[in-house]
Amino acid sequence: MLYPIGVNITEYRLRIFDRWGNKIFDATNGKWKGYDANDKPYPVGVYVVYVTYKDITGLERELKGNVSLIR
């Protein structure tokens, strides 16, 4: 399960893209489990992750990275 954790984060938006740039997950305060809406697992591989979050002061930030899905 993938989701951001941190100190003083009030809300976040998590977006996951496959290697072709297709958005496969987009949720506010959600958790990515590596499965699609029909509970079919996504293939093993590298995915691009964008996290936009707000802290307790209202400052909004964005992080980008990669995550490897392994089973």
Describe the protein's architecture and organization:
The protein is mostly beta strands and 71 residues long. The chain has one domain: Immunoglobulin-like (Sandwich), CATH 2.60.40. 0% of the residues lie in helices and 51% in strands. It is built from no helices and four strands. A four-stranded antiparallel sheet has the order 2-1-3-4, with no helix packed on it. The chain is elongated, with a radius of gyration of 13 Å.
Write the element-wise H/E pattern from the N-terminal end onward.
EEEE
**What is the CATH topology?**
Immunoglobulin-like
**Can you tell me the residue ranges where pLDDT is under 50 for at least 5 consecutive residues?**
none
Number of helices: 0
| Percentage of β-strand residues | over 45%
What strand line-up does the widest sheet have?
2-1-3-4
Counted beta strands: 4
Mean pLDDT: 95
Instruction: Give the CA-based shape.
Output: elongated
- CATH class division: Mainly Beta
- Could you say how many structural domains there are in total? 1
Radius of gyration: 13 Å
Helicity range of the residues?
Answer: under 10%
Write the layout of secondary structure elements.
Elements: E1 9-17, E2 23-28, E3 45-55, E4 60-69
Antiparallel strand pairs: 1-2, 1-3, 3-4
Short description:
The protein is mainly β. 0% of the residues lie in helices and 51% in strands. A 4-stranded antiparallel beta sheet has the order 2-1-3-4, with no helix packed on it.
Comma- or semicolon-separated keywords:
71 residues, Immunoglobulin-like, single chain, mainly beta, 4-stranded antiparallel β-sheet, 51% strand
